[in-house]
Amino acid sequence: MPDPRFFEDLGPIALADLAALTGAALADPATGARLVRAVSVMASAGADTVTFVSDKRFLPQLAESQAGACFVRPDDAPALPSHCAGVVTASPQAAYAIAAGRLHRPRMPTGDARVDASASLEPDVRLGPGVVIGAGAQIGRGTRIGANTVIGPGVAIGRDCEISANVTIGFALIGDRVRILAGTAIGEPGFGATAGPRGLIDIPQLGRVILQDGVSIGANSCVDRGAFDDTVIGENTKIDNQVQIAHNVRVGRNCVMAAHTGISGSVVIGDGAQFGGRAGVADHVTIGDGARVGAAAGVMKDIPPGETWGGMPARPIRQWMRETAWLAKQAVRKEGDA
User: Does residue 77 sit in helix, strand or coil?
Assistant: First the structure.
C-alpha cells in the first residue's frame, strides 16, 4: 500500500466497477463483487490489490504473487493463477494507471495557515519568511528552512538540516544533517506515461524519496519519488547543482555526482561511485561499488565494481582512449592524403 502519510486511500471498489472504469472486461464475471483496495506491483501484491502484466515474461512471477486481480492482455488471461482474477484489456498499463488514480490521491497542502496545526517542530527550528509546512510534517531540532520553501504533508526532516530558499519537498523522509540548496525539488512525480484511450496518460507515482543522513543536494536539482518503490539516496552522498535523479533510483553511500548528471529510472548505484559532469545513465542499469563515470559519458549497460568508463556509449576508459587516439590518427592520415 502507498504510504498513508502521503497518499489518501480512496478504496475499496468492486472489481466489476473497476473494469467498467478502465474499459476492461472480467475474465470471469463471477469475480465482479471482489473488492480491491489498492494497486500494487507484483512483489508486494495482496489479495485485495490489483496489479498488471504487459509482458509474457512476467507471468511466472504473477503465479508466485498474492495478487487478487491483474490487468492482462486477452491472450495472457488463460495463464493467470487460480487465485488471481483476470481483468482483460488491450492496454494493461493504461488500465493500471487509471485504477491507481481512482484508488489513491496524493495529499497536498490545504488551508490558510503557513504552518499546519498538526505539524511537529522540535526546539530551535528556524523558518524563513513565507515557509509553508503541511499537515503531519515533522522537523527535527536545529534545522533551518529558507524563505518560501514548501514542506508537504507527512514529510519528516531530521535534525540539524539546512534547507535553502524556494525548495519544494514532498513525499519524503529525510535524515539528519542533510543539506538541500535553493530551487531544488524533492519528491515530485517521476516521469511515466503510457498510451490511453484518448492519447498519452500519466502513470501515478505512488512511492517516496528517502534521503539518508549527511546527504547534500545542490541548487535546482530534482529527485523524483518512486513509481511504487522508493527513490533512495545513501548516507553522505554529495550531489551537485542541476542534477536529475529519476524514480526508483537507488544510490549508495558516499557517492559523488557533478553538475548536469542525469540518472534514469530504476538505476542501482553502489557505494562510492563517482560521476563527472554531464554524465548520463540509461534506465535499469547497475553501477558497481567504486565505479567511476567520466564527464559527458553515456552509460547504456552495467559497469562492474571499481572500473572507470567514458565515452558515448560508455566503455572501459582504456578502450575508449585507444579508440579515440586511433580515430585521431586516421583523421590526420586522411588529411595528409588530401
Answer: helix
Order across the sheet with 231-233: list the strands: 120-121, 138-139, 156-157, 172-174, 209-211, 231-233, 250-251, 268-269, 286-287
The number of angstroms, rounded, from the C-alpha of 180 to the middle of its chain's C-alpha atoms is: 18
Q: Are 129 and 147 in contact (CB under 8 A)?
A: yes
Distance from C-alpha of 18 to C-alpha of 31, rounded to nearest angstrom: 12
pLDDT digits (tens, 9 = 90+) for 112-160: 789 999 999 999 999 999 999 999 999 999 999 999 999 999 999 999 9
pLDDT of 86 above 60: yes
The rounded distance, in Å, linking the Cα atoms of 329 and 160 is 55
128: helix, coil or strand?
Answer: coil
Q: What is the pLDDT of residue 198?
A: 83
> What residues contact residue 213 under an 8 Å CB cut-off, 6+ apart?
158, 175, 176, 177, 178, 235, 236
> Comparing C-alpha atoms, which of 20, 13, 24 is closest to residue 91?
24
Bridge pairing between strands 231-233 and 138-139: unpaired
Asked if 263 and 284 touch (Cβ cutoff 8 Å), the reply is: no
Percentage of the residues of the chain whose pLDDT score is greater than 70: 99
Is there a catalytic annotation at residue 247? yes
For residue 332, pLDDT over 90 is answered with: no
User: What is the rounded CA–CA span in Å between residue 82 and residue 337?
Assistant: 73
186 contacts 163 by C-beta, under 8 angstroms? no
Q: Are the CB atoms for 293 and 314 separated by under 8 Å?
A: yes
Dump pLDDT digits (tens) for 255-288: 999 999 999 999 999 999 999 999 999 999 999 9
- pLDDT of 338: 57
**Which residue in the list 104, 247, 260, 284 is annotated as catalytic?**
247
* Angle between helical axes of 92-103 and 15-22 (0-180°, round to 10): 120
Angle at 59 between CA 58 and CA 65, to 5 degrees: 95
Q: What is the pLDDT of residues 163-176, one digit of tens each?
A: 999 999 999 999 99
